[in-house]
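tokens incoming
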């Protein structure tokens, strides 16, 4: 009982302190300490038995493993975003979009750019780095409240693309090894759900921005923003080519290198940005330096939350919660959706929710005769809902480290688009599968 209080209390403490704007490098360990104390977990390795979980060991294992796995992607993603900004390539693309499509399509351009990169295989953690320079430029020219930039970036990345059929993102691939399906499982339902989420979510985002503008909100510049100077900009095509290079390289090397393909793709983007636009740079090496510092902050914030998950997964209450969630009676699709979504919310990770639930769910439901393609798609979509609570690593990185906003100002729109919209899409998917579509 105390362990469950500690687990739930620690999760709420993490969310509460994050929403209050506290530094995640402090919030993560404090929340993990809360979980450990209530669960009777030893605080230090020296106080734990051989192989026994402990606060410091489990927290730092989660923290360091994430840094080990993702540092180069974060680094190159941040540098790519900065060189696109410093060279004027991002400004060139944004001005072209505004001139040709009109200011009313500025938000759509950001969403589409994120969607293309995400569906192209670029990691969710680095798409925002790449598109943010264009987003800040477009919002500035359109005079729109900048607090909605995280919502636009998140909506284009982690909703209708991340968990859709054919997506190269890991959230669409994890179920394959457990269900013996393909990345295109349930594609008919997936297509309908993706269209619904894209249309409804974009309408909602535009509505929120329109209401804010009607109340007098406008774009407010900051000292940290790129300084507007009257200088020549590269041709929009020269700005677009590096984005295409990232997309093509990610596609080309994804099958052989998996996540490591991002290293080649992003490095290629940086190189092409320099080669094509080198005469337009203010200072290439300053841009590299700023990108490096931004990457360190971003990955530190995210790893702090992953470390909390490493402690939470080691306490008895977590095992009890998982056991309960994976034995929910009724429709297997509903039970699977609830289990994966709740576990993803507890760990702050869509892939983590799948990796924990599927080894338990898959054999049970497959023996019961559940259609594997329907289960694959429902599990994939459900993992992308509650995972986007305020403590999610991607959410924290995008709002805090990349966009420089606070949860208080930005998370409302982010939560609406990345939690509520996917939950509605999940409901639609379950209904369609229950009616026999795609089975």
């Amino acid at each position: 009982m105390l362990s469950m209080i500690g687990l739930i209390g620690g999760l709420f403490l993490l969310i509460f302190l994050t929403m209050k704007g506290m530094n995640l490098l402090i919030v993560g360990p404090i929340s993990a300490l809360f979980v450990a104390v209530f669960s009777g977990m030893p605080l230090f390795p020296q106080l734990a038995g051989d192989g026994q979980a402990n606060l410091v060991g489990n927290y730092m294992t989660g923290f360091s493993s994430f840094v080990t796995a993702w540092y180069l992607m974060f680094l190159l993603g941040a540098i790519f975003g900065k060189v696109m900004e410093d060279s004027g390539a991002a400004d060139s693309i944004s001005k072209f979009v505004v001139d040709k499509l009109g200011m009313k399509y500025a938000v759509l351009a950001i969403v589409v750019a994120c969607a293309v990169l995400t569906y192209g295989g670029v990691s969710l953690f680095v798409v925002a780095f790449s598109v943010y320079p264009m987003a800040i430029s477009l919002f500035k020219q359109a005079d729109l409240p900048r607090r909605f930039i995280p919502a636009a970036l998140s909506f284009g990345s982690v909703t209708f693309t991340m968990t859709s059929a054919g997506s190269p993102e890991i959230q669409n691939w994890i179920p394959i090894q457990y269900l013996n399906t393909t990345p295109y499982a349930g594609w008919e339902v997936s297509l309908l759900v993706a269209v619904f989420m894209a249309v409804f979510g974009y309408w909602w985002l535009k509505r929120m921005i329109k209401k804010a503008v009607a109340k007098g909100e406008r774009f407010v510049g900051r000292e940290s923003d790129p300084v507007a100077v009257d200088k020549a900009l590269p041709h929009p095509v020269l700005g677009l080519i590096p984005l295409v290079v990232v997309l093509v390289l990610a596609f080309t090397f994804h099958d052989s290198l998996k996540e490591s393909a991002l290293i080649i793709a992003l490095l290629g983007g940086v190189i092409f940005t320099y080669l094509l636009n080198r005469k337009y740079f203010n200072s290439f090496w300053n841009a590299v330096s700023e990108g490096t510092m931004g990457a360190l902050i971003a990955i530190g914030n995210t790893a702090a939350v992953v470390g909390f998950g490493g402690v939470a997964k080691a306490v008895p209450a977590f095992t009890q919660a998982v056991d309960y969630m994976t034995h929910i009676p009724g429709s297997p699709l509903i039970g699977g959706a609830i289990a994966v979504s709740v576990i993803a919310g507890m760990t702050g990770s869509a892939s983590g929710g799948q990796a924990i639930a599927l080894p338990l769910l898959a054999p049970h439901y497959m023996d019961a005769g559940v259609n594997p393609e329907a289960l694959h798609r429902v599990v994939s979509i459900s993992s992308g809902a509650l995972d986007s609570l305020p403590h999610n690593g991607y959410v924290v990185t995008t709002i805090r480290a990349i966009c420089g906003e606070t949860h208080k100002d930005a998370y409302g729109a982010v939560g609406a688009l990345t939690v509520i919209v996917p939950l509605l899409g999940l409901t639609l998917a379950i209904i369609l599968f229950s009616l026999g579509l795609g089975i």
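note: Residues 1-435 form one domain.
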